[in-house]
Design brief:
Blueprint: E1 30-36, H1 55-63, E2 65-67, E3 70-71, H2 77-86, E4 108-109, H3 117-123, E5 127-133, E6 150-154, E7 164-166, E8 169-172, H4 180-193, E9 200-205, H5 229-251, E10 258-264, H6 290-293, E11 297-300, E12 308-310, E13 314-315, H7 319-326, H8 346-350, E14 363-366, E15 372-377, E16 380-383, H9 392-395, E17 401-404, H10 420-439, E18 445-446
Parallel strand pairs: 1-9, 1-10, 2-12, 3-13, 5-6, 5-9
Antiparallel strand pairs: 2-11, 4-18, 6-7, 7-8, 10-11, 14-15, 15-16, 16-17
Helix pairs in contact: 1-5, 4-5
């Protein structure tokens, strides 16, 4: 069983995660893990955006640690959620391409055999709750089967289906898209305000600002009437709802004892109303260019995390072992569960030196249609497969393309010819990692009585021709 470098657990004492109380056992911190849907970094003013003002998320950033080289688990939403909750590359969990309802085989989802972060926290005595978009399966693959004591959710994206469920029971059909963000915020606040002697783990996967952009009536028209107004209104409301959650923590006296994380599931959606005309990175949702998965992330824990900024490479997969270690939650993988690809970065991100040396050593990228396409090591990024959508096709005219992200985050200057040894080093590392992942895959989960999914892929089925050179 791989435990994501939990051997460094003693250093977690620096986190201050234990509030010492007289004549009482130490209380572990609460955790709120919020994830927006298709939100790009410079949709937030705290990440350099000027088009939309986001004062409450900016407040969170000023009080916490802002991660500028944080990567979602995938360039599209279902596998991104798989990575976040499992701490593993989606390909290891049987993902081939696409999202639930588009690309996944019918009647499939994330396997019930996956041991999720919610299950780990629940097994450690936390009450676990979810409010938001699930998008990981129905029937035997819903939140209540994956570690959540309570769950209020839509099963699919808001453009696919908006039937609302509570703990597996349908409570209302065709929920008004304009009211989803408010509804999920209200449920999150209810969980926070609930009286309990147990700490809580709350997962809030927002459905906003995923298309269609339908502003709440109270925000409709606030940003004007141009093409970007609806999208801007939706993000502005999301910012306010995040603020309501922060206010609920403050009002209940729980802010000091709560780790809050805010991030996004992938980059911006092509064609979304008001997409930023000058994004920070090249590429977008579905693509393995930086704009597909390099997204905003903020972590706050008053008195425990020193406010600031880090460019350390962090993946959504790392949140499982990092949060578990920070909260003294053991990860006891059942037989048949996934292997963790996430790394415990708590000692490094919280009180350790924040520079490139604190980063994870490597990170693989997949195109949303299933090709393994690139690897990052330090500031180097190597594309070793074209993928199947532009502009990635144009990036690799005759071989691997190497970029130095320290001064080329838009991946415009291919320096592979100048650094052939670095290219070979990264190709070898990608080959080794991918071989290990595809040799230890789990199948997707299926509905009861549905046929099993197809046989696992081999690594060579998904990597480009140059990786074998």
């Amino acid at each position: 069983m791989k435990l994501g470098h939990l051997a460094s657990l003693p250093m977690l004492l620096m986190l201050g995660c234990h509030t010492i109380k007289h004549d009482a056992a130490p209380r572990r911190p609460n955790v709120i893990l919020m994830m927006a849907d298709d939100l790009a970094s410079n949709d937030l003013s705290c990440f350099g955006g000027s088009r939309i003002q986001t004062p409450r998320i900016d407040q969170l950033a000023s009080e916490g640690l802002r991660l500028t080289s944080y990567y979602a688990g995938s360039a599209v939403c279902s596998p991104s959620r798989m990575a976040l909750l499992s701490g593993a590359y989606p390909a290891r969990l049987g993902w081939r391409w696409g999202v639930l309802g588009y690309g996944f085989p019918k009647k499939t989802g994330m396997s019930p055999a996956v041991y999720t972060i919610a299950e780990a926290f629940r097994d450690a005595g936390y009450r676990t709750a979810m409010a938001g978009k699930w998008h990981l399966g129905a029937r035997n693959m819903e939140p209540q089967e994956q570690g959540f004591d309570s769950a209020y959710y839509i099963r699919m994206s808001n453009n696919q289906n908006r039937d609302m469920y509570r703990d597996g029971e349908l409570v209302q059909e065709k929920w008004d898209n304009r009211l989803l963000t408010e509804t999920f915020a209200n449920e999150a606040v209810r969980v926070i305000r609930q009286a309990s002697d147990e700490p809580f783990f709350l997962y809030v996967p927002w459905s906003a600002p995923h298309f269609p952009a339908d502003p709440h009536p109270e925000w409709q028209g606030q940003s004007g009437n141009d093409r970007s107004a609806k999208y801007t209104d939706v993000v502005a409301e999301l910012d306010t709802r995040v603020g309501q959650i922060l206010d609920a923590l403050q009002d209940t006296g729980k802010a000091e004892d709560t780790l809050v994380i805010f991030t996004s599931d992938n980059g911006r959606q092509s064609g979304q109303q008001g997409a930023n005309p000058d994004p920070l990175y090249s590429g977008q949702k579905w693509q393995s260019l930086e704009g597909g998965t390099r997204v905003p992330c903020i972590i706050r824990s008053p008195g425990r995390i020193q406010p600031g900024v880090t460019d350390a490479i962090v993946s959504a997969m790392d949140l499982f072992p990092t949060l578990a270690a920070a909260c003294d939650v053991p990860i006891r993988m059942p037989e048949g569960a996934q292997t963790l690809d996430g790394i415990n970065l708590a000692p490094r991100l919280i009180d350790g030196p924040r520079d490139e040396a604190t980063s994870r050593p490597d990170l693989l990228y997949w195109h949303g249609r299933g090709q393994a396409t690139a690897i990052r090591m330090d500031n180097w990024k190597l594309h070793f497969h074209r993928g199947n959508q532009s502009p990635e096709d144009r990036k690799l005219p005759g071989g691997p393309a190497l970029y130095d992200l320290s001064d080329d985050v838009k991946e415009r200057n291919n320096v592979a010819a100048k650094h052939p040894e670095q290219v070979q080093r990264m190709l070898a590392q990608a080959r080794e990692l991918l071989t290990g992942i595809y040799e230890h895959q789990m199948p997707l989960g299926t509905w009861p009585g549905a046929p099993a999914t197809t046989t696992p892929l081999a690594a060579r089925d998904v990597w480009g021709p140059w990786i074998d050179q």
